[in-house]
Amino acid sequence: DVQLQASGGGLVQPGGSLRLSCAASGFTFSNYDMSWVRQAPGKEPEWVSIIFSGGGAASYRDSVKGRFAISRDNVKNTLYLQMNSLKPEDTALYYCRRLSGGYRGQGTQVTVSS
User: Fold this and answer.
1) Is 32 in contact with 99 (CB distance < 8 Å)?
2) Distance, CA of 76 to chain centre
3) 3-class DSSP state for residue 31?
4) Phi and psi dihedrals of 89, rounded to 5?
5) 62 SS3 class
6) Cβ contacts of residue 8 below 8 Å, gap of 6+?
7) What contacts 44, CB < 8 A, 6 or more positions away?
8) pLDDT at 55 over 70
9) 64 pLDDT band (50/70/90 cuts)?
10) pLDDT value of position 40
């Protein structure tokens, strides 16, 4: 069965950095487009970034462009999100999602606060 296990969240001060990881199993990771999604308390989930199965092309929502970088390691079956220059408004539960079939992991909490 498909499993997506996110990790790497935590409490960080504004301007700080975090690197999220998502370990995938139960499917051929390299064949699928993957994304990071976040959900802040009381808000709807919002798409953050997507990386296509070929590994090179990626896209970002405007509010994170230039600060976040998505990547993938198709040997380790792992998706990453490098987050720099973090802002309080980045605070949310972040989870990875396989676009085909809508599978998602349990998420990892990111809190940006001084």
Assistant:
1) yes
2) 16
3) helix
4) -70, -5
5) helix
6) 18, 19, 20, 21, 108
7) none
8) no
9) very high
10) 95
| CA nearest neighbour of 57 among 26, 77, 33, 39 | 33
Q: What backbone torsions phi and psi does residue 103 show, to the nearest 5 degrees?
A: -65, 140
Helix (H) or strand (E) run with residue 89 in it: none
Structure tokens given for 72 = 């993938």
The tokens for 21 are: 């990881």
* Amino acid type, 109: Q
Q: Tens of pLDDT along 4-21?
A: 999 999 999 999 999 999
**CA–CA distance, 38 with 47 (Å, rounded to integer):** 7
The Cα–Cα gap between 72 and 21 comes to 9
Q: What angle do CA 95, 99, 100 make, to 5 degrees?
A: 135
